[in-house]
Sequence to fold (265 residues):
Amino acid sequence: MTTRRIVTVLDQGRSQSDGLATFVVLAWGTTWLLALPLAAAWLRGLPGEPWRIALAGLSAFGPSSAAFLVARRQRRLGAVFGRFRTSPIWVALALLTPLFLHLVAKLVHLAFGGRVTQWFWLPQTSAQVAALFVFSLGEEFGWRGFAHPIFLRRYGPILGPLATGLVWGIWHLFYSIAPDGSFHLAGFALTVLELMLWAVVIAWLFERTNRSMAVALAIHAGGHLDKARVSAEDWRLKALTLLVLAVAAAIAARAFSLRSSGEAC
Fold:
C-alpha cells in the first residue's frame, strides 16, 4: 500500500477534514517503527549496531514527514513549511529562552543552599551538535507548523498548546528507553509533563511572531543547546527546573489568552 493510500484510508470517515488524527498516527507510527530496532536491542542488553542507530536518527523526522504528507494532500504546504519571516531579535530570544529558564532554576537552587556543579551543558560531541538541527527540523514542522494551529482552533489558547505538548510528549516513548535497557515510567511521565509546559511557552512565542517557523526551530534548538542534565539524586534542582518552567508557562498562557481575547474583540 502506498503512502498516499495510507493517508487516504486514515482520513476516510472523518467528520472533520483537518487531518489531525492522520498526522498523529503517521508521526507516532513512523518514529516508533524506526526507533524500535535500537530500543529492542537495548532492552535485550545488546549494543546498538550502526544500522539501528541510523534508523533511530531518521526516526526524528517522523513529525515533519507526517506533516508533509498530510499538508501536501490538503494543498497547504506553504502554510506549514513556508512561514519564516520575523525579526532576528525574536529568533535570538527563542534560542536563549531554555538557557535562561535553566539558569533561573539554578540561581534559586543556589540561593536555598544547593550546589551547582555546572551552569551550562553546551554540546560536547558531534552527535550533540547534530541534535540541535536534526530534532528541530525533524519535529517542529509537525508539532508547530501543522498540529499547533489545529489544536489551537479546537481547544483554545491554553488547552490547545497543552494538547500539542501531550502528543509531543507521548511521541518520545521509545526515546525514553536507556542504552542499559531501563525504562522508568515516572521519568517518561515527567518528560510528557515538561513538554506540555514547554508547548505553552513555545505557543506564545510562535503566535507572537506570526507563526514564524524560524522561532519554533530556534527554541527547540535552544532546548538541545542546554539539556539541563540533572542527576536523579538532585531532586530539588530537578523540581525547581520544572517549577520555573511551570511559572513561565503560566505567564505565557496568560499573555496568550489576553492577546487572543483582544484579537477576538
The chain is about 75% helix and 0% strand. Confidence is low (pLDDT under 50) at residues 9-15.
